[in-house]
Specification:
Length: 207
């Protein structure tokens, strides 16, 4: 209970202030526990930060359980079936990125993308790599002549459209002329994402 509460609070603090800026004293106070609990459970601030990376990876994997299931029989799919699977994965990721609950952990992920530490390796091994491999498998059914690296480049750019919904939230709101993204804007972005992915993959299929 204390360990889980500490990680939830720490994700918020590390997300908003970064590793250097976050205070273990403030984290312990916000979690309503003693600072010694951090040492006991995690060995210190660095251990807590790395545990947060593992926690984020586990949360994403749990949120994307249905998406991961779409990868299981990828190699038996027709190109059109694979396209539909990619669309479903994209929408599932978009829903997660549009959810306000993703704000704190997304800040950590974005920061680790810019200045990777051991925490990034844990995020990669914990969830990102499997997502990449799953999408790559689906894309290989759509674009059988593409190399492995070309498939990965395609995957990165397809799903970069999803990431911007969270990592560039201020620009998205400015562009759509709103203060916050509501249901109307979320629906519009999800529909636009589906159309974009469909257009790109149909074009790739004919190459």
């Amino acid at each position: 209970m204390v360990k889980s509460r500490l990680m939830d609070v720490a994700v918020a603090h590390f997300g908003r202030r970064g590793f250097e800026g976050a205070s273990t004293r403030d984290i312990a106070t916000a979690a309503d526990t003693a600072m010694s609990s951090i040492t006991y459970h995690f060995g210190g601030k660095e251990g807590l930060y790395l545990a947060c990376a593992d926690h984020i990876a586990a949360q994403i994997r749990e949120r994307q359980t249905e998406a991961f299931a779409l990868f299981l029989d990828a190699m038996s799919l027709t190109p059109d079936e694979a396209i539909e699977r990619v669309l479903l994965v994209g929408d599932s990721m978009a829903v997660m990125m549009l959810d306000p609950a993703s704000a704190d952990w997304a800040r950590i992920v974005v920061r680790e993308q810019q200045d990777p530490t051991e925490a990034f390796d844990r995020l990669w091994r914990g969830v990102m790599e499997d997502l990449m491999l799953g999408v790559q498998a689906l894309l290989s059914r759509i674009c059988p002549n593409h190399s492995r690296i070309e498939l990965r480049a395609l995957a990165i750019l397809l799903f970069g459209q999803v990431m911007v919904m969270r990592s560039a939230r201020a620009s998205v709101c400015k562009a759509l002329e709103v203060e916050e993204l509501g249901q109307e804007q979320a629906a519009r972005l999800r529909d636009r994402l589906r159309r974009n992915i469909l257009a790109i993959l149909n074009a790739e299929k004919t190459r």
